[in-house]
């Protein structure tokens, strides 16, 4: 059986889809699974043994008729028994339409008119359900449609963690033990203010006598790069890897890390896949929908009536600025030195 997964972006969404692909492979071990993804989110899918082929799409193709035609011509060379739209947006719906497939499947309440392109519309999903479980349900309902109802789907915990990811050892030495600090995000409202990060570093001198702190981030996060390099000059035991490592190198480093302190962003989900202890700072988004899922995590958020608001801009994002450095340090210590399991704290 040949299956096409359509999940174009973003990095966090792609990573949250991997347990569903793992489950699909459990049901159909011999299935050939292809994945259609935007090129910028493809690094951890390339050479992944779960996948037969990775099809790289550039969103600019929609504005370049010739490039779009050539891509669709290549896409249509393969006939798929099942096409699964995990994205549920207009762009993924269009690609679902052009793919050659017997069954084109997605949820009936997917957005931007994408269900118009499905042959099989699954019952509406609960938007409050965590994305990982929503994607797992998409696979389970697809299997139910193809083979009849499965009463006890195999949702063992290993599905969430036993996911092969390509990795590469960085060609530089790093201090151990260490914690990764993930301070960047695509939404400005998700950011913990730099003054809070600096105050946090001020009060963690005792921790940094034994544990190194490494800021990580992408090459386009120039403001974060400048800030983290400044912090590395001011504080002992603080280092900046912002813009200096690839995602595959991050996989290697994250496996070695003691824990991850992060805002709501893509690498947080990589930490979940690798089952690392996570301290996650949430404000405008819902940890119930897109939070960490490792076996040991703490979510910190302020109990404000306006949070979560899911807004990308805010004149006064109190939900993040009011998260005190003292509270963050206290919970980081608890995460590191206690056997506390899953928590969501107000």
TrEMBL record:
Organism of derivation: Caldimicrobium thiodismutans
GO CC term (a single one): cytosol
GO MF, any single term: ADP-heptose-lipopolysaccharide heptosyltransferase activity
One GO term of the biological process aspect: lipopolysaccharide core region biosynthetic process
Gene3D superfamilies, per database record: Glycogen Phosphorylase B
Keywords associated with the record: Glycosyltransferase, Transferase
Pfam families (UniProt xref): Glyco_transf_9
Record's keyword annotation contains Transferase: yes
Nuclease listed as a keyword: no
Protein known as: Lipopolysaccharide heptosyltransferase I
Xref: InterPro entries: Glyco_trans_9, LPS_LOS_Heptosyltrfase
PANTHER family membership: LIPOPOLYSACCHARIDE 1,2-N-ACETYLGLUCOSAMINETRANSFERASE-RELATED (PTHR30160:SF1), TETRAACYLDISACCHARIDE 4'-KINASE-RELATED (PTHR30160)
